[in-house]
Amino acid sequence: MIVLGIETSCDECAAAVVEDGRRILSNVVATQIPFHREYSGVVPELASRKHTEWIYGVVEEALLRAEKTPGNIDGIAATALPGLMGSLLVGLTFAKAFAWARRIPFLACNHILAHLYAARLCENGPAYPYIGLLVSGGHTIICRVDDFDTVEVLGTTIDDAVGEAFDKVAKYYGLGYPGGVHIDKAAGRGDDGVFAFPVPKLHKGEHRYDVSYSGLKTAVVNQLEQFRKKGTPGDLNTCDIAASFQKTAVEILLGALLRACGDTGIKTVVSGGGVAANSYLRSRLARCDGLTCIFPPLDLCGDNGAMVAGLACQYFLRGDSSPLSTTASARVKEFKRRYP
Question: Both 162 and 49 in a single domain?
Answer without folding.
Answer: no
